């Protein structure tokens, strides 16, 4: 029952996080003053361009290194799993959990990289965009789209969570079919245990 309560609470918190993220984004775009002669919400301005240019170059370097390390960890764990004959049971279980966790984080990592990478590149190409496409005010408003990150991450996380729960329910349903076929060989306590597990994941 504690597992079932945690699953329901996790879904509620995910929906709550998405609602808060979209509410903040709506407030930034529509309720904050954006007239040209007033201060508006922008992380970029002509006075701090040099400092932000250095900051974005550093962020881009860190982001690329993080992606390389993430893919390296996933590759090493998958390579180790291909030869698990010499590993103990606990090590094989931990290796499987590592791969499952890293695989579940792939969409989150891609979403994070896409948002941060696009912001950094846009900063680096500021002069070109400013000269040929738009004025300063429009550019500064469009480049300050980091709040999109706060909307995408909980959505992707919720989708991943739902898919994970669906896989677990499918596994538990298959196990219960096998248990039901051999129910006469089990005692009442074992049967009750599998019934509780089926109710938790369904």
TrEMBL record:
<feature type="transmembrane region" description="Helical">
    <location>
        <begin position="98"/>
        <end position="125"/>
    </location>
</feature>
<dbReference type="GO" id="GO:0016020">
    <property type="term" value="C:membrane"/>
</dbReference>
<keyword id="KW-1133">Transmembrane helix</keyword>
<keyword id="KW-0812">Transmembrane</keyword>
<feature type="transmembrane region" description="Helical">
    <location>
        <begin position="145"/>
        <end position="163"/>
    </location>
</feature>
<protein>
    <submittedName>
        <fullName>Uncharacterized protein</fullName>
    </submittedName>
</protein>
<dbReference type="InterPro" id="IPR053286">
    <property type="entry name" value="Nematode_rcpt-like_srab"/>
</dbReference>
<dbReference type="Pfam" id="PF10292">
    <property type="entry name" value="7TM_GPCR_Srab"/>
</dbReference>
<keyword id="KW-0472">Membrane</keyword>
<feature type="transmembrane region" description="Helical">
    <location>
        <begin position="54"/>
        <end position="77"/>
    </location>
</feature>
<dbReference type="InterPro" id="IPR019408">
    <property type="entry name" value="7TM_GPCR_serpentine_rcpt_Srab"/>
</dbReference>
<feature type="transmembrane region" description="Helical">
    <location>
        <begin position="12"/>
        <end position="30"/>
    </location>
</feature>
């Amino acid at each position: 029952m504690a597992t079932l309560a945690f699953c329901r609470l996790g879904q509620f918190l995910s929906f709550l996080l998405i609602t808060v993220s979209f509410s903040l984004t709506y407030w930034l775009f529509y309720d904050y003053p954006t007239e040209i002669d007033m201060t508006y919400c922008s992380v970029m301005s002509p006075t701090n361009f040099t400092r932000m240019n250095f900051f974005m170059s550093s962020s881009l370097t860190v982001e690329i290194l993080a992606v390389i390390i993430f893919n390296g960890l996933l590759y090493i764990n998958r390579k180790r799993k291909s030869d698990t004959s010499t590993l103990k049971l606990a090590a094989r279980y931990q290796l499987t959990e590592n791969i499952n966790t890293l695989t579940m984080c792939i969409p989150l990592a891609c979403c994070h990289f896409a948002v941060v990478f696009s912001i950094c590149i846009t900063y680096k190409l500021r002069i070109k965009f400013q000269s040929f496409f738009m004025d300063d005010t429009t550019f500064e408003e469009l480049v300050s789209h980091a709040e999109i990150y706060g909307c995408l991450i909980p959505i992707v996380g919720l989708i991943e969570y739902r898919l994970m729960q669906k896989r677990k329910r499918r596994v538990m349903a298959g196990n219960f079919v096998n248990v039901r076929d051999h129910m006469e060989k089990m005692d009442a306590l074992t049967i009750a245990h599998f019934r509780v597990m089926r109710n938790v994941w369904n």
